C-alpha cells in the first residue's frame, strides 16, 4: 500500500526537519541518559523511573518514525497554492465571508501535518478545506458542520 502524500510548505518541511534533528540528537541522548540512570538504581522489576524512561523512549521513537514518514511522503506546495488567483488550491490563502453572520475569515489551506487553526492554517482534509478546494472567486460553498450547514462566499484568493 502506498503512503498518501503529505502536503507541506517549504516552511512546514523545514520545521519538521528541525524537529526531527532535535528528537534524534538532543532528546534521544536525554532519554538514553534517563534509562542508564534508572538502571543504576538496581532492581528493574520495581523501578518506576526505568519504566517511565522506557515509555518515553517508545513515544520518542514513534514520533521520529512519524516525522520520517511525513518527510518521505512530502509533496512541497507553493506558498500561493497553484499560482492561480481564481481557483483555491492547497497553499492558497482565501478570504471568505460567512453569509449568515456577515463575518469575514481568512484561511490558508495546508496539508494536515501543518494545520494550525489558531494561526488560520486549515487542513485540506478539514470540512472547510475540502469545501474550499477548487472553489472560484465569488463562488459560494457549503460546509457541513455539527451545528448545520454554513455557507461561505469566496472573496479573495492569494
Please tag this protein with its features:
2 domains, 3 helices, 158 residues, single chain, 39% helix, alpha/beta, two-stranded parallel sheet, Chitinase A, domain 3, five-stranded mixed beta sheet, Helix Hairpins
Describe what you observe in this structure.
- This protein is α/β, with parallel strands linked by helices.
- The chain has 2 domains: 6-76, Transcription elongation factor, GreA/GreB, N-terminal domain (Helix Hairpins); 93-157, Chitinase A, domain 3 (Roll), CATH 3.10.50.30.
- The protein is 39% helix and 25% strand.
- It is built from 3 helices and 7 strands.
- It has helices at 10-39, 48-72, 127-132; strands at 6-8, 74-76, 93-98, 103-110, 121-123, 140-145, 148-157.
- The strands form 2 sheets. It has a 5-stranded mixed β-sheet with strand order 5-4-3-7-6.
- The two termini are 35 Å apart.
Strand-helix topology:
Blueprint: E1 6-8, H1 10-39, H2 48-72, E2 74-76, E3 93-98, E4 103-110, E5 121-123, H3 127-132, E6 140-145, E7 148-157
Parallel strand pairs: 1-2, 4-5
Antiparallel strand pairs: 3-4, 3-7, 6-7
Helix pairs in contact: 1-2
Amino acid at each position: 500500500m502506498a503512503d498518501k502524500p503529505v502536503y507541506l510548505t517549504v516552511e512546514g518541511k523545514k520545521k519538521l526537519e528541525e524537529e526531527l534533528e532535535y528528537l534524534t540528537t538532543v532528546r534521544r541522548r536525554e532519554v538514553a541518559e534517563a534509562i542508564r540512570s534508572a538502571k543504576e538504581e538496581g532492581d528493574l522489576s520495581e523501578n518506576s523511573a526505568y519504566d517511565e524512561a522506557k515509555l518515553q523512549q517508545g513515544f520518542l521513537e514513534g514520533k521520529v518514525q512519524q516525522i520520517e514518514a511525513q518527510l518521505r511522503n512530502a509533496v512541497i506546495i507553493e506558498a500561493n497554492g497553484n499560482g492561480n488567483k481564481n481557483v483555491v488550491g492547497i497553499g492558497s490563502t482565501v478570504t471568505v465571508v460567512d453569509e449568515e453572520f456577515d463575518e469575514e475569515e481568512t484561511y490558508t489551506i495546508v496539508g494536515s501535518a501543518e494545520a494550525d487553526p489558531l494561526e488560520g492554517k486549515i487542513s485540506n482534509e478539514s470540512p472547510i478545506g475540502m469545501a474550499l478546494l477548487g472553489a472560484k472567486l465569488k463562488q459560494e460553498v457549503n460546509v457541513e458542520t455539527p451545528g448545520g450547514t454554513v455557507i461561505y462566499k469566496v472573496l479573495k484568493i492569494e
